């Protein structure tokens, strides 16, 4: 596929995917991005002008979506409202982007016959008990617990319906928590890293026993590209790197890697509806498509991420003050 349309490509995961595609293939990439607060043009700086174009626009704009999809071989749909806390304060943008936006793209893909890959999240499955040995699989029932995860679940179901009803050539991937370069400082790992780099202390929700299954964003990108090229139409693939860690353990690793005492963090009031544990079983992706993560050891990926934030203060500094002011207003 010579021409790829990447929605949300100025955001964290999308921009990393664009970098990955341009450095590992000969494809040309067009990014369609609304450039909300979570996007950053600087995340796409330095890309080759003969193979990369950024279009500022909304995936809910059906005319724009139709024109762009008509001129591309495949759509990789990263664009989403994705911050759980924001979805609890105002669900409406999540309904618009995650549901209406996905519908708009699916209709354009249906008209023009393009290949479509849909990026989703493990949060559609709800959460697991902390002592539950089970992990999410492609057969796990959906049980979302927030406006964010429920709208992502709804968008997944739209994709499945368009495959069955209209023969859209689509695949879905549900991924565990991404971390790595270009992630907005409102998110857990970059917030803690930049707090320490600023001479402050990390913030930990509650007792910090909630478990997340972490994957480096480069590993996610490699899996998505593999699914796009070799995945079976209509199938869902879970992407995970066996990176389960408690939030407390992650904070302690960050402090240790930055030369600080492991207990130099502050505990804040836990988030409403805070899911206990996510855990991905990526056996299908590994066995059927032969995928393996580069950062199989979480601490190695975390060290690489910390090094990137140390070296790229000019990228994250403009976001930091406003993010911390917003958290302070919520006493977090």
Keywords:
332 residues, alpha/beta, Rossmann fold, UDP-galactose 4-epimerase, domain 1, 11 helices, globular
Please estimate the helix content.
Answer: 40-55%
The Rg value, from CA coordinates, equals 19 Å
* Tally of DSSP β-strands: 12
Quickly give the structural class.
alpha/beta
Silhouette: globular
Distance between the termini: 45 Å
- The CATH first-level class of the largest domain comes to Alpha Beta
Give me the number of helical elements. Answer: 11
Q: What is the typical, i.e. mean, pLDDT?
A: 95
Q: So what's the oligomer here?
A: single chain
Biggest beta sheet attributes: 7 strands, parallel
Quickly describe the structure:
The protein is α/β, with parallel strands linked by helices and 332 residues long.
What does this structure look like?
Strand 1, helix 1 and strand 2 form a beta-alpha-beta unit. The chain is 43% helix and 17% strand. It is globular and about 55 Å long. It folds into two domains: 200 residues, Rossmann fold, CATH 3.40.50; 87 residues, UDP-galactose 4-epimerase, domain 1, CATH 3.90.25. The model has no long low-confidence stretch (mean pLDDT 95). The protein has 332 residues and is α/β, with parallel strands linked by helices.
């Amino acid at each position: 596929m010579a021409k790829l349309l990447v929605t949300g490509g100025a955001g964290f995961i999308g921009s990393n995917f664009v970098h990955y595609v341009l450095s590992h293939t000969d494809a040309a990439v067009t990014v369609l991005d609304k450039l909300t607060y979570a996007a950053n043009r600087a995340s796409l700086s330095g890309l080759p002008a003969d193979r990369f174009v950024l279009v500022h626009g909304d995936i809910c704009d059906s005319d724009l979506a139709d024109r762009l999809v008509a001129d591309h071989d495949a759509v990789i749909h990263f664009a989403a409202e994705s911050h759980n806390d924001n979805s609890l304060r105002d669900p409406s943008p999540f309904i618009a982007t995650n549901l209406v936006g996905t519908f708009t793209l699916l209709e354009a893909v249906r008209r023009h016959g393009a290949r479509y890959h849909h990026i989703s999240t493990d949060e559609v499955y709800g959460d697991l008990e902390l002592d539950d040995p089970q992990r999410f699989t492609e057969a796990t029932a959906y049980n979302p617990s927030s406006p964010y995860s429920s709208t992502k679940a709804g968008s997944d179901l739209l994709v499945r319906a368009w495959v069955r009803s209209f023969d859209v050539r689509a695949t879905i991937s549900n991924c565990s928590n991404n971390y790595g370069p270009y992630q907005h400082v409102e998110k857990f790992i970059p917030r803690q890293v930049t707090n320490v780099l600023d001479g402050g202390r990390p913030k930990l929700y509650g007792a910090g026993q909630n478990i997340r299954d972490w994957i480096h964003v480069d590993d996610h990108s490699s899996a998505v590209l593999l699914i796009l090229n070799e995945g079976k139409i209509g199938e869902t693939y879970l992407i995970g790197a066996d990176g389960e860690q408690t939030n407390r353990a992650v904070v302690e690793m960050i402090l240790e890697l930055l030369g600080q005492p492991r207990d130099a963090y502050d505990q804040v009031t836990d988030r409403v509806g805070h899911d206990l544990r996510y855990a991905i079983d990526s056996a299908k992706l590994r066995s059927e498509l032969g995928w393996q993560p580069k950062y199989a050891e979480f601490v190695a990926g975390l060290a690489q991420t910390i090094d990137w934030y140390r070296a790229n203060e000019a990228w994250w500094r403009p976001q930091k003050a406003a993010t911390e002011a917003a958290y302070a207003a919520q006493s977090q």
